[in-house]
Amino acid sequence: MELSENSSILDLILKLDEMLNKGLANRLLRDRKLDPNVMILLNGREIKHLNGLNTKLKDGDVVAFIPPIAGG
Amino acid sequence: MTVGLTNEELARYDRQLKVPTFGVNEQIKLKQASILIAGVGGLGSAAAYYLVAAGVGKVKLVDEGRIELSNLNRQILYSTNDLGKLKVTVASRRLRDLNPEVDIVGISEKISESTINGLLKDIDLVIDGQDNFKTRFLINEECVKKKIPLIHAAVYGFEGRLMTIIPYKGPCLRCLLPEPPPEPPIVPVMAPTPGILGALQALEAIKVLAGVGEPAIGKLIIVDGRELSFYTINVEKDPECPICGEKKVDD
Questions:
Q1: Which of B7, B61, B184, B230 is the most exposed place for a label (fewest CB within 10 A)?
Q2: In the predicted model, is pLDDT for residue B9 greater than 60?
Q3: What is the mean pLDDT of residues B68-95?
């Protein structure tokens, strides 16, 4: 999808919320902080290891939103 | 010491010995291996069943639980008349009946900081069949320290995930999950989901132990049972990982 130059993961979430699914941002964010029940991988790296929601995106980046599960 | 296969073993494993790239040498590697099944619930039941059937030499089962009625929709080693018995006792008996060639050890013990070192002694590979993040993190940390391959899987409802962790070669569980998420309440599980994932764990374990195929290192495999689709998400080994990263605290 298209985002403006210098957009962050947070911008992406807000844009997805607007485009696809009102309420998505509410599921992923708590007070503009990432809900601990969601992991986000940017090109295979968890964004907590990067710059969190402020991690900047560039052309061709792949972002995955995954709720962690632990059942056995 | 030379290890070979008896005529009975050659017959028992005949169908897998006919698989291209898997032969007597690979079967002997399985026979020489010792593995730990960490939790004999839904995942552990299925993984243990296939790994014992496939002829892994020594299988250590650890679980402190007793069999409850609500286990029986998915924990296929147990029957209705086993209710109240220790899981490892029943599992060991069932698995010995399946394949008496395998050395099966059942340990009724909680996996904790004080027991994990003993449990991992002389172990070549671990199957993670836990149901909570805390113990999963502990097993991951100790496997990384000891460089023991760990086959991670988890389930929720119709969905399952798997990743094969070869310490320092690919990402570990903490590369994927830097911080422990909140522990879930009782997890909903559709009966066959842990069977599918446990069987995939067994397949990955066989590949790693025998040195065949391409294990899912750095790949989070997501099984969506509701739509029956498999997705692969590439996961990178993270230099910032608190467990296997460059800044890790040396033990």
A1: B7
A2: yes
A3: 98
